[in-house]
Amino acid sequence: MSAADCNLDLFENPARVPDGFLYRENFLSETEERELIQKIQGVELSAFRYYQFTGKRRTVSFGWQYEFGRSAIATSPEMPEFLLPLRKRAGKFFGIDPAGLAQASIIEYSVGSPIGWHRDVPYFGVIVGISLGSACRMRFRKSQRASSKEAKRDENLSIDLQPRSIYFMNGASRGIWQHSIPPVKELRYAIMMRTLRSKTSG
Q: Which string of DSSP letters, residue by residue, matches 187-201?
């Protein structure tokens, strides 16, 4: 079974989102969320680096990682044991072989931390995201902007990602649309899992 075969009745559409974006609230219980946050707080996180700049977010990658300025992704430490049941559950939920989710990142958004407009690097394919701790707004815009200064109304979409929710990005939401998160108002964690798109080199 592929993600395209998932029962769409399982997914909620509280807002207009790009094609290929699926969203479900309450993927985790409050107890599961607390336990994951406790585990994450025991992991060593480093400030996010974009070329010579350092961001407010802190992060760590497992399986594979990308460093800006490099021409390939490189291997990184294996996923910690506490992420493996979550990977299995997420893979089953979206009809993906859990082993295919070969890359994972943990991101800590301290108060005031944003993430700017971007598309995920092309070395990765499908994206699965799990939100912990607090809600945030995820915004979308077409990567090919309208020629006028003002974007067309249907080229700007957004959704509120609630704590304990899960989302899936593929197709147009992954390849045509950019996404961003404005500065968060409360501490938030995200667990991101990705498939590999192309042959890798370390």
A: -EEEEEEEEE-S---
